[in-house]
Design brief:
about 30% helix, three-stranded antiparallel sheet, alpha/beta
Length: about 350
């Protein structure tokens, strides 16, 4: 059973009973949910930091925002975020299988928030997609779309099949890792859509999340012809060193998941205790280059606050000065380049 309150966490032995009263204040503001699959991994500090509530979440810094990536700024209709010309987000549900303590949409999925788009709102959102030929890719997110029934997902795909200019449908999810049993043959079948390339992007932050059950769930998707991508958030005390991050990237590649983005932690309220600096992130990425397979190299990105989109912020290797070009190799040696 999914644990949804500090009291339940204490009864399961995941927190001390003396912490319950203080953490109830956190839970009143930010949703709590830990699946059985993740509860079994709580002896890993990197897992506990991601999912167990902390009083530090009540500390909001001036630069933090309820909408740190500017979703609202680029939302022409409810449920749609259209920030980039050729792709848009469809926020189908505001519910997740687990609630991460660093979530950049934590104000939108918290207690008292709507659980999903109403049928009328979904009609309006899909009408916007149909009326906007520039949308080549639709990214289905939330919340987590894989908490919905296969029937709901199949219905969505049937409706998208009728929108010819949408060629790619990408689902963003944590479910294959946090609730592997939910990746049923019925769900996999529901994802199929004639005329569309369907991708699944898995959010995972530590190799421990890719348990044998999680890898089997991912295999059900990949074996069905659905390519998988990996998304990771750089988190202090979770994956902010080269060995830990590189091990995660290898675990993804071994699971046939291509690492896609390493996200610099967004300025979500109450999350500063999990945030690294950009310089720290660049140093970790620099340590991966050349020492870990090219398949294991995600793009390190910063979602610019205010809704201005993602920018690559990885380390630089090229320097040009007065017509002379040098490039730094993976050992840190600066080499001249005459090309």
């Amino acid at each position: 059973m999914t644990l949804r309150s500090p009291k339940a966490l204490a009864e399961a032995g995941l927190i001390d009973k003396a912490e319950v009263a203080a953490l109830e204040r956190v839970a009143a503001q930010y949703a709590v949910a830990i699946t059985p699959a993740m509860a079994e991994l709580m002896d890993h500090e990197a897992i506990a930091r991601q999912f167990l509530p902390s009083e530090a979440e009540l500390n909001t810094l001036p630069e933090e925002s309820a909408d740190p990536v500017g979703d609202d700024t680029h939302s022409p209709v409810e449920g749609i975020v259209h920030r980039y010309p050729d792709r848009a987000l469809l926020k189908l549900t505001h519910t997740c299988a687990v609630y991460c303590r660093f979530c950049f949409r934590r104000e939108m999925v918290g207690p008292g928030q709507a659980r999903a788009l109403t049928p009328a709102a979904l009609d309006t959102a899909l009408a916007y997609v149909a009326d906007t030929p520039a949308i080549w890719e639709l990214i289905v997110t939330g919340g987590d779309p894989f908490v919905l029934s296969p029937r709901r997902i199949a219905d969505l795909m049937a409706r998208l099949a009728k929108i010819d200019h949408v060629k790619v449908v990408r689902f963003h999810t944590r479910v294959p890792a946090v609730d592997p049993a939910a990746i049923t043959d019925e769900l996999v079948s529901a994802l199929k859509c004639e005329g569309k390339a369907v991708y699944v992007a898995l959010h995972a932050n530590h190799a421990a999340e890719l348990t044998p059950a999680a890898r089997a769930a991912c295999a059900r998707l990949v074996d069905a012809g659905i390519p998988m991508l990996g998304q990771t958030v750089l988190l202090k005390g979770v994956n902010d060193d080269p060995e830990t991050l590189g091990t995660l990237m290898r675990a993804m590649v071994e699971t046939r998941i291509k690492p896609y983005y390493l996200h610099h932690h967004d300025l979500a309220p109450g999350t500063s205790h999990l945030r690294t600096t950009l310089a720290e992130g660049q140093a970790v990425m620099k340590a991966l280059r050349g020492r870990w397979s090219g398949l294991c190299q995600p793009t390190y990105v910063l979602d610019i606050p205010g809704g201005h989109g993602k920018a690559p912020v990885g380390p630089g290797y090229l320097d040009e000065d007065e017509g002379a070009t040098t490039v730094e190799d993976f050992n840190g040696v600066v080499r001249p380049y005459a090309g």
